[in-house]
Design goal:
Length: about 130
């Protein structure tokens, strides 16, 4: 059985990522959160890729705004420093940030492998433990 590992995925063209405008893309077909990626170009010319889901609620960070290298969630206005993704007022609640690289004019992000599918029994047990 082949082992699925993290993989570099193309997210958007470099020119699509304006300095203060997050770009949201779906870059996979796993149906899992890892497919949702947000790219932000910082004022320092760095491209930051994040999970496009706020750690607070299921709101896309790409719908937010960027000011002074801080990404502000459109949900409840939590602020995340870029490039670290650290929440400005609660450092232990940061956004998920992925490594990036530029290849042939594309911003690529190193995304985790999709989680292995669970059996119905495993899923039900996991749900029961959360209640
Ligand atoms: S959903 Fe992002 S701060 Fe609440």
């Amino acid at each position: 059985m082949a082992t699925v590992t993290a993989a570099w995925e193309r997210v958007c063209r470099v020119e699509e990522a304006a300095h203060d405008t997050p770009v949201g893309r779906v870059v996979g077909s796993s149906g899992q959160d890892r497919d949702r990626v947000c790219v932000v170009a910082t004022s320092d010319g760095e491209y930051v890729a994040l999970l496009d889901r706020c750690p607070h609620r299921d709101i896309a960070l790409s719908g937010g705004v960027v000011r002074d290298n801080t990404l502000i969630c459109p949900g409840h206005f939590w602020r995340f420093e870029l490039p670290s993704g650290t929440r400005t007022d609660l450092p232990d609640r940061g956004a998920t940030v992925y490594p990036t690289r530029i290849v042939d004019g594309w911003v690529e992000a190193l995304l985790p492998a999709p989680a292995a599918p669970q059996s119905i029994r495993e899923w039900l047990l996991a749900q029961a433990r959360q209640d």
